[in-house]
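note to self: dont lose this again. the chain is below, predicted strucutre after it. 253 aa total, dont forget to put it in the shared folder this time
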Amino acid sequence: MSQLWLKTWRLDLMVALSLLTRIPIKVPENAYERQAEAVWAYGLIGVLWAAAVWLGCMAGLWLGLPPMVAALIGLAIGIVLTGAMHEDGLADSADGLWGGHDPTRRLEIMKDSTIGTYGVLALVISFALRWGLLVSLLEAEFAFGGLIIAAVIGRALMAVVMANLPHARLDGLSHSVGRPDFQPAYAGLALAVFIGLVFGGFSGVLACALAVLTAWACARIAIVKIGGQTGDILGATGQLSELVALMALLACA
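---
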């Protein structure tokens, strides 16, 4: 029985890795039958992402580059690792939620590959905030723990939003994954809070709590604006939750 569980967990991790990153891995076809159940592992993919970003930052500092440049190197690695998937979701959500006048039009805008003014501003502001926060965390020597806490809770909350909100459209990545049950989604959230406690103590738990409030606000806006969630909404939720978590960690550092 334990071997079966280990195999299932390993396959869930592979599915989550293939969905949330651009790492070319071969996943057994039958593993995708558990896409909705594999959401508990979303947060653990954040550990990999955070480690990659941190290593990029450390490489820059080792080369004698200033923290501002090292942070840019680390963030660039993170963007390559995910293919800017979550950033794209943030931009599309900003354009659609604030550029349309009714749910149908908002969903049309979000699906359009063209980026608008709201999307550009959302990307610029969010990236500038992330960059500045990472520089400050590097100077405070808390970049490793801070990155892990923020990345894990941000991705875990994407799964929670998936479980709580209906699909706003009948296609797209989120719809193809399916709507997960509460159990795997909240198991992933509990794991994220535990990781926050391990790496940040009270500050880590506080950062997770504020990230949860941020995700709740994103979910409420999505319900009011488009009646549910999409892959873009999930990406935006993850990005904003991470930013709030980073802010809380830096304030407590």
